[in-house]
Design a protein that fits this description.
Elements lengths: L1 H18 L6 H9 L3 H107 L3 H19 L3 H34 L1 H18 L7 H16 L1 H5 L5 H4 L26 H12 L3 H19 L10 H24 L6 H23 L5 H20 L5 H32 L5 E3 L2 H10 L5 H5 L4 E3 L4 H20 L6 H28 L6 H16 L1 H12 L13 H29 L19 H16 L5 H24 L8 H19 L16 H11 L3 H7 L12 H21 L4 H25 L1
Antiparallel strand pairs: 1-2
Helix pairs in contact: 1-3, 3-4, 4-5, 4-10, 5-10, 6-7, 6-12, 6-14, 7-14, 10-11, 12-13, 12-14, 13-15, 14-15, 15-18, 15-19, 18-19, 18-21, 19-21, 19-22, 20-22, 22-24, 23-25, 24-25, 25-26, 28-29
């Protein structure tokens, strides 16, 4: 059984050897050597080899005849092959010989084709390089012609389009390397032109401003009744400049070559020959700004340009806003200052409206706020130095024109009008100073005499200067006199001139009629209550003013007081505001002239009293005289002269109102009485005799006689004599020696000596006692004198007791 399996295994191995690749026969043979029957297997293998050899032999025997036949046929073909080879060799020889010419022609053709290709390639390269060279030549021409913005665009096309197409050539590399240098040159040249433009604008800002202000002034004067905005005429020029300024952006040429050479200011001659005044923008060529803006925009440096432009213009604004130190001396200084500011903002306004974002509204508004604050501060400072009202008025008109011009460009100017309202107070103060000098001249030059009128023309002249309503004087025959002096019509006319001056300042300030009326009335009140009142007071208190002048001042003040109603109507006619309007300010002229009249009256009283004091200084009483009272005593000489002076003085005062003369007369009598009493009580007079008292009593009787005679009308009975009652009762008490009645009735209203002061009586008794003591030292001791001394001592004791009781 094992032999059968061995045989089968050997068969399998043999089949594997026959059918398997020799590379994989190793494992099969190893399995044979691993077994114990490899000898048997070798026998099997030999047998299989012999079997295959027999098969090969049978196959060879079967195909041998065919092989022999094939060899025979092959030997026959070899001869033919040699013959064919000879023919092919000959044919090849002839073909090689014939093909040499063709190959030469083909080589020539190849060379021609290479040359043709090179020529075509060269033409293509030249076609790409020629635009580069043409563009570069154009760039050089534009640079030489200083047309920098087109040159910059050409440079951009050369760099972005032409050079990339041309390829890598040495001249292209040189051009590419030169491109940044050309850009820098264009940028620097454009900036140089911009600097020249800014410098030229700074130098000619006053001319630009002058033209703009003149244009606004002409526009205002064309039709003041229509509300044509100053901007209306200017707008036409702005639009024209905008169209011109937009040229560089639209055509890329940066304006005409002529304008490219200009620094910024165009000369305009014979402006009056034009149909219309050229706008301020027509005087300026803004092409340097536009070119530089476009160039920097193309270069990607627009922010740098905007910052530089704004920084430089801010510096120029500060320079324009810096006034000259002597600007306040002349109107021309203010005009140049305003022209520079207007010129600056005319340029900025035009740049704002003709460029896209170079300056914006916020930037311009910021500059205007700066300019407005500095301008107002400068005007406040410099106008404060001005003391000429005409210059202040001209300055105000110039500020109005300045404000209207800038308002026409859209700038807010309300603060300028507020400044002019502030300056109105300063203008009023300057006017008051001027009119103070004028009033002083009038007062100094006046003769304080009624105006004589000889002819009808003179009368009409004065009545036209001053409102005089006196029918009796109108009917009086010539020559006649006006009751007032030259001062009255001159002062009245000067008040009207002052009102006119105030009205001139209120023009063009956009004030209502009520506000103008209130301003004029307040200013006029200051003129009346402060300026004129002080001038009148000073004139009244001058040392050399006599009674006739004071009388005339009172008369003048009365007529000026009556004329105040005409001043009210005069102001109302100027302002078209009725005087009875609610909250309307009333003129204080009535109180002013009343105060002047009262001051003159008081000065009359003071002068009269001073004159009386001068006469009293001449009094030379003998206080120790022993003369007794009687009919033989005569009034003192000084008193007689005083009475004569008073009589002549009150004759002059007859032109005054009755109360003034009455008050003056009463004041004189009281002053005489008090002065005589002071003479008696004077501490320097240590002793007074009874004879001296009788002399004083005689003088008092003379004064009472003067008062009783009625030097002025209006007093009833013995009213004037009451002024001497204090002195009269005191002298009666001493001359009549009625001490018993005085002491008994003291304190009663029915007492005959109710106005006698016990202190005065005691002082006078002490002086009498002193006089008695001196007399007894040099005379015999008479019993009557001793008794009188005792009586005086007793009265003195009683008076002291009375005073002590009254004090307790």
């Amino acid at each position: 059984m094992s032999s059968v399996e061995t045989v089968a295994e050997h068969e399998r191995i043999l089949r594997e050897i026959e059918s398997t690749d020799t590379n994989c026969i190793g494992p099969t043979l190893r399995s044979v050597y691993d077994g114990e029957e490899h000898g048997v297997f070798m026998g099997k293998l030999d047998g299989r080899i012999r079997s295959h050899d027999r098969d090969i032999e049978r196959m060879c025997n079967h195909h041998f005849q065919g092989f022999v036949d094939s060899i025979t046929e092959l030997l026959k073909v070899r001869g033919e092959a040699h013959k064919l080879k000879s023919q092919v060799t000959e044919t090849d020889r002839r073909l090689q010989q014939d093909g040499k010419g063709l190959m030469a022609s083909m080589e020539e053709l190849r060379q021609c084709r290479i040359q043709q290709k090179n020529i075509a390639s060269t033409i293509d390269k030249l076609a790409m390089c020629l635009p580069v060279l043409e563009m570069y030549s154009k760039l050089q021409e534009q640079m030489e012609a200083k047309r920098y913005y087109p040159a910059l665009r050409t440079l951009g096309q050369l760099e972005q389009t032409c050079l990339p197409r041309a390829g890598q050539y040495r001249f292209c590399a040189l051009m590419a390397d030169n491109t940044p240098l050309l850009r820098s040159q264009i940028r620097d040249t454009a900036m140089t032109h911009l600097r020249d433009f800014l410098e030229s604008i700074r130098k000619h800002s006053d001319r630009l401003g002058e033209t703009a202000i003149k244009q606004a002034q002409v526009q205002r004067s064309l039709d003041s009744s229509t509300s044509v905005h100053p901007r209306a005429l200017i707008g036409r020029h702005i639009r024209k400049e905008a169209s011109l300024g937009a040229g560089p952006e639209s055509n890329g040429q940066g304006g005409s070559p002529l304008s490219e050479q200009d620094s910024g200011i165009l000369d305009v001659e014979d402006e009056e020959e034009e149909e219309e005044i050229p706008g301020a923008q027509d005087l300026v060529d803004f092409s340097p700004v536009y070119r530089c803006l476009h160039i920097y925009t193309v270069l990607g440096l627009r922010d740098v340009f905007e910052n530089y432009y704004r920084k430089q213009r801010r510096k120029q604004a500060r320079l324009a806003l810096q006034p000259q130190s002597n600007m306040h001396e002349t109107l021309e200084g203010y005009r140049c200052y305003f022209n520079q500011i207007v010129g600056f903002f005319v340029v900025e306004d035009h740049i704002l409206h003709t460029t896209q974002g170079l300056v914006n509204t916020a930037y311009v508004d910021e500059l205007w706020e700066l300019a407005l604050s500095k301008t107002i501060a400068a005007l406040r400072t410099h106008s404060s130095y001005c003391d000429d009202p005409d210059l202040v008025l001209d300055l105000k008109n110039l500020i109005v024109l300045f404000a209207d011009t800038l308002q026409g460009y859209g700038f807010p100017v309300s603060q300028l009008f507020e400044l002019m309202l502030e300056m109105r107070d300063q203008y009023g103060e300057i006017l008051l100073k001027k009119w103070t000098h004028t009033f002083r001249q009038i007062l100094d030059q006046d003769n304080y005499s009624p105006i004589p009128i000889a002819t009808e023309q003179e009368y009409k002249y004065y009545t036209s200067q001053f409102p005089l309503n006196d029918p009796e004087l109108d009917k009086a025959a010539f020559p006649k006199k006006l009751p007032f002096s030259e001062l009255v019509p001159r002062v009245y006319c000067q008040i009207k001139e002052f009102i006119y001056a105030c009205l001139k300042y209120s023009e063009d300030l956009h004030l209502s009629s009520t506000e103008v009326d209130d301003m004029i009335r307040k200013s006029t009140n200051l003129l009346l209550t402060r300026t004129l009142s002080h001038c009148l007071q000073n004139a009244i208190k001058k040392r050399n003013v006599g009674l006739p002048e004071l009388v005339q001042v009172i008369i003048n003040s009365s007529h000026l007081e009556q004329a105040c109603t005409f001043l009210e109507d005069f102001i109302s006619n100027l302002t078209n505001v009725p005087p009875d309007t609610a909250n309307s300010t009333q003129l204080y002229g009535t109180s002013t002239f009343k105060d002047a009249r009262h001051a003159a009256e008081a000065e009359i009283y003071t002068n009269l009293n001073a004159k009386i004091d001068q006469f009293l200084q001449l009094a030379d009483y003998d206080w120790t005289t022993t003369a007794q009272g009687g009919g033989a005593m005569t009034p003192s000489d000084y008193l007689t002269d005083l009475i004569t002076f008073l009589q002549s003085t009150f004759t002059v005062l007859t032109n005054l109102p009755g109360k003034v003369a009455q008050t003056a007369c009463m004041s004189v009598c009281k002053h005489i009485s008090s002065s005589l009493l002071q003479l008696l009580l004077d501490p320097d007079v240590r002793s007074i005799s009874i004879g001296a008292l009788h002399q004083v009593n005689t003088d008092l009787l003379q004064c009472e006689s003067f008062a009783r005679a009625g030097p002025v009308t209006g007093y009833q009975g013995d009213t004037l004599i009451l002024a001497f009652s204090d002195l009269r009762q005191l002298l009666d008490l001493f001359t009549k020696w009625d001490w018993s009645s005085y002491l008994a009735d003291y304190g009663r209203t029915t007492s005959r000596y109710v106005r006698v002061n016990p202190h005065s009586a005691l002082l006078l008794l002490d002086k009498m006692r002193e006089s008695g003591r001196r007399n007894t030292m040099f005379a015999q001791f008479r019993k009557t004198d001793r008794d009188r001394q005792k009586l005086i001592d007793a009265v003195i004791r009683q008076l002291r007791t009375l005073i002590a009781q009254h004090h307790a």
